[in-house]
Specification:
disordered C terminus; elongated; mainly alpha; 0% strand
Length: 238
């Protein structure tokens, strides 16, 4: 963290022409530092409410206020365009008061940018990757299953990977699923809308998938003449 009061003094020197740029802004500047400083600028100097900031802020305003370097420190969400979605400055400073439809914007970016070219920007490498994955997986479920019963969805993703993997690849969710979840059913369960999510079905089909997976491991262990802990546990539940 940095001394925000010292940063304010440095800013006043910039406004007076005694200094050309910030020297205190660097790698040690935290997001909390940026919030504290920018709130001072827009509340005490500009006199804007959060709503005015949302509606009026542009890059031109930042340039006139000599705060471009500070604005650059804001960690912009991947689904928003830093050059267009200026309202995010207000969201960043006042998240309890200014919001946006994050799910809608994530799906919009997913369809318009990530699906055509997943390498354009890291999409699932965010501070909260599961949120992005599950929103996109939810979109996949809506498109592929529509009004299908939850039991049908759980059963489908409890099948062998060769059964459901083509669908995940089509929606470019295969790598994200493998990297973030032990089992595909974990992702699907969390991606389902609350009215369809069923803990009992999830537990049942995940257990069925587990037993099938361990039968494969069991066969390999027996060929080696070994008896594994998985073997013993599997036999105990028969």
């Amino acid at each position: 963290m940095i001394d925000v009061n010292g940063l304010i003094i440095e800013y006043e020197m910039i406004l007076c022409g005694e200094r050309k740029t910030f020297y205190m802004i660097g790698s040690n500047t935290t997001q909390d530092d940026v919030v504290a400083f920018l709130r001072y600028i827009f509340e005490e100097i500009v006199g804007w409410s959060p709503e005015q900031l949302r509606d009026l802020y542009t890059d031109e305003i930042a340039k006139k206020l000599h705060i471009e370097r500070v604005i650059e420190k804001i960690a912009w969400p991947v689904e928003l365009d830093r050059k267009i979605d200026f309202f995010y400055v207000a969201v960043f400073l006042y998240p309890d008061r200014i919001t946006y439809n994050k799910k809608e914007r994530i799906i919009q970016y997913y369809l318009n940018s990530y699906l055509p070219d997943e390498k354009i920007r890291p999409f699932f490498e965010t501070r909260h990757p599961e949120l992005y994955i599950e929103i996109c997986a939810g979109y996949m479920l809506e498109q592929e299953f529509g009004d299908a019963q939850a039991s049908e969805i759980y059963e489908f993703f409890a099948k062998k990977k060769s059964e459901y993997m083509p669908m995940l690849k089509r929606y470019k969710l295969n790598a994200a699923c493998s990297n973030s979840y032990q089992c595909c059913l974990d992702m699907i369960h969390r991606a389902l809308p609350p009215e369809k999510r069923n803990d009992e079905l999830y537990t049942l089909w995940r257990f069925i998938r587990w037993t099938k997976d361990n039968q494969i491991s069991l066969h390999v262990d027996r060929k080696k003449g070994k008896r594994s802990n998985i073997d013993e546990h599997y036999n105990s539940i028969q």
